[in-house]
Design a protein that fits this description.
- The structure is a single chain.
- The chain has 634 residues and is mostly helical.
- 62% of the residues lie in helices and 5% in strands.
- A six-stranded mixed β-sheet has the order 2-1-3-4-5-6, covered by helices on one side.
- The N terminus is likely disordered.
- It binds one DNA strand of 10 nucleotides through helix 2, helix 4, helix 6, helix 8 and helix 10.
- InterPro entries: DYW_dom (IPR032867), E2_motif (IPR046849), E_motif (IPR046848), PPR_At4g14850-like_plant (IPR046960), PPR_rpt (IPR002885), TPR-like_helical_dom_sf (IPR011990).
- One of its GO terms (molecular function) is zinc ion binding.
Length: 634
DNA sequence: GTAGGGTTAG
């Protein structure tokens, strides 16, 4: 290849041409094969940048790269996603006469695969004569194609089998990422059978890989079966199972497994902690989360920015926004995810003003917002009633940041307008939005109709949402309650009948409180707790006190059984178990808190000198001295 | 002396 045909950056910076008049000093340090040895070391340690720098020095010194040089250096540019450097290296390979070297060919295929330049990868492969296509070449190409061109990858796999190219465990490992969505679970299971038949399953890496594939497909029992059959579990095995449980929302299982892992003498790493912290966040298990933080402080991962973000999220979701903020403020380098997490945290707690302020600070810090952070800031605005501010952000998305709003963003804005009573504008937005409105968009409108008692629009929104999400029970309950509040008992009964006919059952509402490191779970009307008797007595006492205080006088429409809703039982239990009068009690609830219970907790917070924090399905409510942080705007 | 793969946050 001539010098003229090389990409322009070849001459300016980046990699330089082999230079015969190099400095003698550099050449004296590394001579001959020493270069390759050094490159191998750097590549092995993952110091890819250093490897590329060394390669440049090598060229300057006048040394010639050979078939041993290129695999390391191609891998380095692949790992760093340096497309231009990679293409230059391809030129060097051709120039150096190494294009027929199998190791180099494989490295090139792999590199182009990582760049997602799949045609280039295919081209290198196609130019290898049929008889010289080794297992590794196939493996490299399959791994490259698997995510974007699944059928193509499967064809190659079939070709390997018809042409009797020996399979290797890595061939299988390359195929599995194509099966990590539920749609392709059958393919994954078929591969699993094949793997068992060929004996590859005894390869620990293969087993780990199938374990995580099943977990990602939501087939958690199959994942656990693979896990149970692995005789020697490494850290990665434990991590795959812990992450699998975490991704499937099996949080108590995560914490149990974490304990088992420690008992078996395997030390956790940052991947483990991420899974465990996200489960603590879901469970609201702050005490355990704090223990995990202490463990992290005692090991080398304490400063890992991933983990800091997980910690921020955990504390925010456990109700401790103060601690979340301290960790955020202490982070030397805040990433977009850090900002998103803390903004989302303030939004969840109804502190929209702070969320908005942080968003602006983020922009000043030169961080470019993405779609996710916009979802957070829009939600924060809608929870705090910052309608104009929210609309401003929504418009800026497209106009300033060229981000096309997704359905998620539209549902935030419908919520924003709807809560503010601007139902006509919300409806107008839905009619004119360029993306197809999905369930949550109509759902947001339905929710707004409940707040503003608009039965007619509610019926329209309900018909739309039920078409899109016929099994989502929440929408039926919402319309039924809208009818009840409007005094339309017939309508309410009709919806209840519809639910019955469609075989839809209400999710049981449950709440729990953490006490002495253990979660105490309550469902509505629950009498299974060992202290059930005392709990109900306490509840009655609180009811009476609230009545005496005149707090409950507006309770003409007490919903069925709301007097024994799970959050009330949890609060009664917490009050029985707490000695200090100025305590903060956190209750986690799976559904949204109902209006009756909201009023009840407000009353109780006035009677007893405790602060109550209730995390419901959408947000936090901080009750103190008779009022709630949501200002009854939820 | 060389290649191909698996677990991670908002």
């Amino acid at each position: 290849m001539s010098r003229q045909s090389l990409p322009s950056c070849f001459k300016t910076g980046g990699l330089t041409q082999p230079n015969k008049t190099a400095t003698a000093a550099a050449a004296a340090v590394f001579t001959g094969g020493k270069w390759n040895t050094q490159l191998r070391e750097l590549s092995k340690k993952g110091q890819y940048n250093q490897a590329l720098i060394l390669y440049r020095q090598m060229l300057r010194s006048g040394a010639t790269p050979n078939a041993f040089t290129f695999p390391f250096i191609l891998k380095s540019s692949a790992a760093l996603s340096l497309h231009l450097a990679g293409k230059q290296l391809h030129c060097h390979v051709i120039k150096g006469g190494c294009l027929l070297e199998p190791f180099v060919q494989t490295a090139l295929i792999s590199m182009y695969g990582k760049f997602c330049l799949l045609d280039n990868a295919h081209k290198v492969f196609d130019e290898i004569p049929d008889s010289a296509r080794l297992t590794v070449c196939y493996n490299a190409l399959i791994s490259g194609l698997i995510q974007k061109r699944l059928s193509n990858a499967l064809l190659l796999f079939r070709e390997m089998r018809t042409k009797d190219v020996p399979l290797h465990s890595v061939t299988i490992l390359g195929l599995v990422p194509g099966c990590t969505i539920p749609l392709h679970l059958n393919l994954g299971s078929a591969l699993h059978c094949l793997v068992v038949k060929y004996g590859f399953i005894s390869d620990l890496n293969v087993a780990n890989c199938f374990l995580s594939m099943y977990a990602r497909c939501g087939s958690i029992e199959s994942a656990k079966r693979v896990f149970d059959e692995i005789p020697e579990r490494t850290l990665i095995t434990w991590n795959a199972m812990i992450s699998g449980y975490a991704q499937n929302g099996l949080c108590t299982e995560v914490l149990d497994l974490f304990r088992d892992m420690q008992c078996s003498g395997v030390h956790p790493d940052e991947v483990t902690f991420v899974g465990v912290l996200s489960s603590c966040a879901n469970l609201g298990a702050q005490r355990i989360g704090r223990e995990v933080e202490e463990m992290m402080d005692h090991c080398e991962f304490g400063f890992n920015p991933y983990l800091k973000n997980s910690l921020i999220s955990m504390y925010a979701r456990c109700g401790n926004l103060v601690r979340a903020r301290v960790i955020f403020d202490d982070m030397p380098e805040k990433t977009l995810v850090s900002w998103t997490t803390i903004i989302g945290g303030y939004g969840m707690h109804g502190q929209g003003e702070v969320a908005v302020e942080l968003f602006d600070q983020m922009i000043w810090a030169g961080i470019r917002p993405d779609k996710a952070v916009f979802v957070c800031v829009l939600t924060a605005c809608s929870h705090a009633g910052l309608t104009e501010k929210g609309l401003g952000y929504f418009y800026s998305m497209q106009e300033i940041y060229s981000l096309k709003p997704l359905s998620e963003h539209y549902s935030c804005v419908v919520d924003l307008l709807g809560r503010a009573g601007r139902l006509a504008e919300a409806m107008n937005l839905i009619e004119w939005m360029p993306v197809q409105p999905d369930g949550p968009v109509w759902g947001a409108l339905l929710g707004a109709c409940k707040i503003h008692k608009n039965v007619e629009l509610a019926e329209l929104a309900f018909n739309k949402v039920v078409e899109l999400e016929p099994r989502n029970i929440g929408y039926y309950v919402l319309l039924s309650n809208i009818y009840t509040e409007a005094g339309n008992m017939e309508g309410a009964l009709r919806i209840r009948r519809m639910m019955r006919e469609r075989g839809l059952k209400k999710d049981p509402g449950y709440s729990y409180v953490e006490y002495k490191g253990k979660n105490h779970l309550f469902v509505a009307g629950d009498k299974r707790h060992p202290q059930s008797k005392e709990i109900y007595a306490m509840l009655e006492k609180l009811e009476n006190l609230a009545k005496e205080g005149g707090e409950n006088e507006n309770h003409s429409q007490q919903r069925e059984n709301s007097a024994v809703h799970s959050e009330r039982l949890a609060i009664a239990f917490a009050l029985l178990s707490t000695n200090s009068s100025n305590a903060e009690i956190l209750v986690i609830k799976n559904l949204r808190i109902c209006g009756d219970c909201h009023m009840f907790v407000k009353s109780v917070s006035k009677i007893v000198k405790c602060r109550f924090v209730v995390r419901d399905a959408t947000r936090f409510h901080h009750f103190n001295g008779g009022s709630c942080s949501c200002n009854d705007y939820w």
